[in-house]
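The pair is listed for reference:
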Amino acid sequence: MAKKKETKAQTKTKQEEKKEVEKNVCNDKKCPFHGNLSLRGRTFAGELTRKRGKTVKVEWLRYKYYPKYERYTKVMSGVFAYLPECLHDQVQIGDRVKITECRPLSKTKHFVVVGKVKKKE
C-alpha cells in the first residue's frame, strides 16, 4: 500500500494555529490569547460533551484498577471549562479539545479551552 505524502500546505504547525486564533480578535477579558488570563498547572485533552453559552464540559476516559478483582474498569473523568469567544465557532460537540488550568473563574470552572486537537469523527 502506498502512503499518502502530506504537503506543507496540508500540515499545520502550532505557530500557524496560534496565528489563526489571533486573527479572531475578541474583547473577552477571560481569554488566554486576547485577555489577561494567565495559564498554569495541569493540561488535559478530552472530548467536548456539553456546550452551554461560555461553559463546556470536557470528558476523557481513564482506567481504574481494583486490586480485589485484579481487573481494570473504565471510568470517565470530566471538568467544566471556560470557552473563549474567539474559539466559540471553531469548537463543536464531539471535538477533541485541549484545556489548561487557570485561576478559578467561577464555582466549578478552573480550566479554559486552549484549542482544538481534532474534529469529531
About this structure: The two ends are 23 Å apart (CA to CA).
